[in-house]
Amino acid sequence: MSEKKDPGIWDGFKAFLMRGNVVDLAVAVVIGAAFTNIVNAVVKGIINPLVGAIGTKNLDHYSSCLSSSCEGEQGIQILWGSVLGAALSFVITAAVVYFLMVLPMAKYLARVEARRKAKEGAQEVIEVTELEVLKEIRDALVAQRGSGHNQQ
Asked: Exposed site from 31, 52, 54, 114, fewest CB < 10 Å?
């Protein structure tokens, strides 16, 4: 005998996969992986040679020895060059994301919001103006009716 799986679990799983935030997250991971390659290329192609003008081209070679003898793999070494390379990669990534993605999007959203508020403000002015015109018409009609009533 074969047991049938609960359709509620399968349907729930399909609904989970089809939700927008899961798809957005998957796209973000793929774009993030591609973006990592760009940042690594910038660090290896631009930053490392600039640092190499002072010392070595590979930041991984920068280290300090804590013990009396650090020949080869022996001794206690602090590989601060690797940390510096990772920190530079992080700063470059953050700068590119901020200046090429976050800042332009924030400016765009601010413009859209300003247009929306200006449009709402214009509608309010139009509504107020129409209301004032209607009040003036009403007052004029009341004045005509009042003056015409007194003449008869």
From this structure: 54
For residue 55, the 8-state DSSP code is: S
In the DSSP assignment, the letter for residue 43 is I
Which burial class, exposed, middle or buried, applies to 82 when counting CB atoms under 10 A from its CB (0-12, 13-18, 19+)? middle
In one-letter notation, the amino acid at residue 88 is L
Q: Look at residues 32, 41, 42 and name the one whose alpha carbon lies nearest to residue 101.
A: 32
**What pLDDT does 19 receive?**
74
Tell me the three state secondary structure of residue 78. Answer: strand
* Residue 72, Cβ density class (10 Å: 0-12 exposed, 13-18 middle, ≥19 buried): exposed
Cα 34–chain centre separation: 17
Q: CB-based contacts of 33: which residues, under 8 Å, 6+ apart?
A: none
| pTM score of the predicted model | 0.48
Q: What is the mean pLDDT of residues 67-81?
A: 76
Residue found by looking up tokens 């359709």 in the block: 7
Q: How far apart are CA 27 and CA 29, in angstroms?
A: 5
Distances in Å between the Cα of 42 and the Cα atoms of 96, 103, 104, 116, 139 are 11, 21, 22, 40, 74
Q: Which of 80, 76, 44, 49 is nearest to 62 (CA)?
A: 80
